[in-house]
Design goal:
Layout (H helix, E strand, L loop, with lengths): L3 E6 L3 H13 L2 E7 L34 H7 L13 E5 L13 E4 L5 H14 L3 E4 L20 E4 L16 E11 L10 E4 L3 E2 L8 H14 L12 H10 L1 E12 L4 E6 L5 E6 L5 H18 L10
Parallel strand pairs: 1-2, 1-6, 2-5, 6-12
Antiparallel strand pairs: 3-4, 7-8, 7-9, 7-10, 11-12
Family: Belongs to the DAMOX/DASOX family.
Protein name: Nucleotide-binding domain-containing protein
Cofactor: FAD
Length: 317
Amino acid sequence: MAKREVVVIGAGVIGLTVSNRLQESGAFDVTIVAEHIPQHKSVGQRESTGWASPWAGAHWRAWAGDKDTLLQDMEQTRPTALWYATKVDDVQELRKSELPEGVAYGLKYSTLLINVPHYLSYLKAQFESLGGRVIQSRLDHIREALLFAQTRTDPPLVINCTALGSRSLGGVNDQNMYPIRGQTLVFGYVIPRGDGTVVIGGTADRGSWDASAHDETTQAILEKALALESDLVPGSSGLSFEQRTELLRRSIVSVNVGFRPARVGGVRLEVEDFGGAFTAIHCYGHAGFGYQSSAGFARQVLQIANGLTRPSDCPRL
């Protein structure tokens, strides 16, 4: 049987992971169409704040509650009484003397950390090595995905992974989507991400579309980071807190602002029929847990796609 054609809209971590999973299954011929695509950039080189994936700190920590078995399943595709205690290493409860002021309970553990620019470039390269196509283009309406079909036998299956873009994408216009603004700092040393940098932060300003960086927020992040980990500035013993804060500030490579794509009601994962013209699978609204749940949601999209029937496969009377 011929492969079914798929057009994925969006090249963030969800779109790229979904595309890889579909392409490697051997049952689909996938094209990614996106306004923004991963490019290997120098540290600190800015991307659009509307494209959330390049801004993430991207480490694994549990978002799912003890009874949220669906999100637990999505999160534990990678990676005491907490459900995720067996998914990470060296889980320890912090003693009261180790907790910052105002904090009632804390854990520490070893976890996965992703260098986001490198990981996105890897996903794109992996997808292309499997025979997938990547086209950079802005779509104003979801039906425009049909223009990128390689054949005309059947309309392609469209998979919408546009995250915050689903709010303005014609034919979708999901007003339940909203931003969670985050400001983070990238430093040139401390805990390397493989390229000698580390992300520290950040903030979670729900509903804020403010794309500018605020110096007072930068200062607050610096002070909180030093309060939690005094060794962030090597060789600074004997210096005052203010002096260590200033030394840490001098090592800032970039100050980033990005919008996590949150959604009232949670992630939208469902099939929609567009009047018989084409079928779409929506997969967006992952807020701040896109990286850690991307493989799990890609598996779900593959299962849904495998269960959909192509028009040409339907019996004709």
